[in-house]
Specification:
mainly alpha
Length: 206
């Protein structure tokens, strides 16, 4: 009995150590991804190197290479981390029976919510431009990103809520408009009223 108990204790301790190691590795990967996002947003895509990420994350030299051996691996890690950080940004309930003005104002609040992390927004914009010829990572940032898929669902529901005919056919244009407004915010290229723009969009629907 004592031997069985001892084996059980040793096994449990081994499992706990493995879980701690896995959690530590996951935390370190997030640390690397977060540092990469900050670097891209602040210093541009060319600043994303293994050594710069080590320094930004305050990690020992060579740490980033353990989690991302190549530059493409590092880009993928940063893209995936961006996706994780924004996963729940578009999780919002759409009210039923809205007017078109109410729908525009509702989506204005959603745009404000999507833009609440300017560092992520700036990094995503820079990465989309850099990765425009890399179908895998470009799509992971855009059409396949969980937040964007949820945004498409919210837009369709908002259009249907204010009785826009064939709402499903209008979704792509509305999502693209919101994408453009988010990019304008990231680049700070012009003063743009999200509410005015969205109200004009809804007013112009047939």
């Amino acid at each position: 009995m004592a031997i069985v108990v001892s084996i059980h204790v040793e096994y449990s301790a081994g499992v706990e150590r493995k879980m701690e190691a896995d959690m530590s590795a996951a935390g370190r990967r997030e640390q690397v991804g977060d540092a990469g996002i900050r670097l891209v947003a602040r210093d541009g895509i060319r600043a994303l190197t293994h050594l710069r990420v080590d320094a930004e994350a305050d990690l020992p030299r060579g740490s980033t290479s353990y989690y991302a051996r190549t530059r493409h691996d590092l880009l993928r890690l940063v893209v995936n981390r961006l996706s994780e950080r924004s996963r729940d940004d578009a999780q919002i309930d759409v009210p039923a029976g809205m007017t078109r003005i109410e729908a525009a104002d509702f989506l204005t609040r959603l745009v404000d919510r999507l833009a609440r992390r300017p560092i992520d927004l700036t990094a995503r914009t820079a990465l989309v431009v850099e990765l425009r010829d890399d179908a895998e990572l470009r799509d992971a940032l855009t059409v396949d990103a969980p937040w964007r898929k949820r945004l498409a669902t919210v837009c369709e529901q908002a259009l249907a809520s204010c009785a826009v005919a064939q709402a499903h056919k209008r979704v792509s244009d509305l999502v693209s408009l919101i994408d453009a407004m988010l990019m304008y915010r990231a680049c700070r290229v012009a003063q743009l009223s999200t509410r005015t723009t969205l109200r004009a969009y809804f007013a112009g629907l047939g």
